[in-house]
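Lab notebook, bench 4. We co-purified these components, and the gel suggests they stay together. Before we commit to crystallization screens, I want a quick structural picture of the whole thing.
Request: model the full complex, all chains together.
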Amino acid sequence: MIPATTSARLKKRRTRHLRERVIEGVLFLAASISVFTTVAIVYILVKESVVFFQQVPLKDFLFDTQWTPLFDDAHFGIVVLLSGTVVSSVVALCVAIPLGTIIAIYLSEFAPFALRELAKPFLELLGGVPTIIYGYFALIFVTPLLQKIYPDLPGFNLLSAGLVMGIMIIPYVSSLSEDAMRAVPMSLREGSYAMGATRLQTALKVVMPAATSGIASAYILGISRAVGETMILAVAAGMQPNLTWNPLEPAATVTTYIVQVALGDLPHGSIGYQTIFVAGLSLMLMTLMLNIVGHILRKKYREAY
Amino acid sequence: METTANAEQLVAKAQAQNLSFYYSDYQALKSINMTVHEKKVTALIGPSGCGKSTLLRCFNRMHDLYPGNRYEGGIRLHPDNTDLLSPDVDPIEVRMRISMVFQKPNPFPKSIYENVAYGLRVRGVNKRVILDEKVEEALRDAALWDEVKERLDDLASNLSGGQQQRLCIARALATEPEMILFDEPTSALDPIATANIEELISELKEKVTILIVTHNMQQAARVSDFTAYMYLGELVEFGATDQIFIKPQKKETEDYITGRFG
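Here is the predicted assembly.
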């Protein structure tokens, strides 16, 4: 028979277990803060939006073509703000995706080692410039430059803000895409070179397809940054709500509307106050959708090498 | 056995002449002289780090891809009788004529069909009729056609390891190269897949010249007509495989082959 008592040397160490527990608890708390914050944000946005939709029918919100929540004749057509967001984002992506991809291909497949190590930090610095500086850069440098080409261009416009926003997003696209391409194993490149392929053929036909999922994530992140960008647009694109698909016009976006209204003194609980939350919810839904698309793309093109 | 080997007409396909190779300052190959005969299988054997893969990769100028590598001496490619290591020679042209199959199967992240068609597309062949025909022919030659003909559009990564390696062989064959370099093609494969690839190599020598690096001496004995034993970057002995394995001329070769060393 084995004696029922536990030998003193094998006994559970209370302090050791306690310490482990405490640390585990701290780690869990730290991790739950981010989850809790997200949940809280969504809760508040949804709660306040429900109040909004009790006063404004969803149909008007989606299909009205005016956004004048603070006027006596109030209209709540979110499409007005969305048009500004979409146009400025499209302009930005027309800059960031091609340039970012080309830079990534160059750095990953063509650049000599020393240049790559030098160029990458500089590029990442672009992403670290405060956006307010980009905003003024757009307003007082890019816009006058563009006005030399189109003299009719207004001082505030989506084009100039979008272009500068594109430059800001380049490092997000290029850095992640480059990481994805660098992660493609050398054996695949060698296989391509051994077939008599040139560097460009190898980069475009083997490395990029192999890195599709990472490149897709980079693009999605770029799009999310564009949709959520506020300062550049607030400074350089004007803040009047304007339903337009023309980048040469000034317009408010979802984000700049929130800034503008949040800075004013709106009575708590007024309809104008509620619009901040609906606009926020719309923005959140857009980025959520982008994240889901990104997730699907990543799953679909999982690296299989 | 030797008499039969001599009775055949041997034609040189490529000749290494005083070939040395340097990884920056490190000399990996020391003045190698060796002839690869046309439509024969030549095996390179030797312990790890002896330079056999380095030598193999000189034949299609793979070393050009990395900075700091340097060749000395030459490799004469026939029938051109041109030194393929010469700076005037375009490595891409060399690789178009001398294909390679790697140690680990490395299919591209594309369909089975597009993997085989890759070399042709790189050469600007895009006509579907021609591609279809060449892809089928290459897959048949690589003994893979019957297994994949129903699913040519599937991703190549869905194939088993042995099938992937045969796909890589098909890829190398599709462009009708004059010579194929095999770098330990079965080291990542199970015994059955290995046997298939070995059989395939024996069949392929009807069409192309083969140079193969192998870790496995039995494999060299089974598939090759000529064998080169290398040690520390030097070619110790080169000759007909039967002769190398039955009565090697040098003591070092005998020690390696009998397993006393390496």
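The mean pLDDT of chain A is 90. Worth comparing against the SEC data before the next meeting. Chain A touches chain B at residues 112-113, 185, 187-198, 201, 205-206, 209-210, 212, 303-305 (CB under 8 Å).
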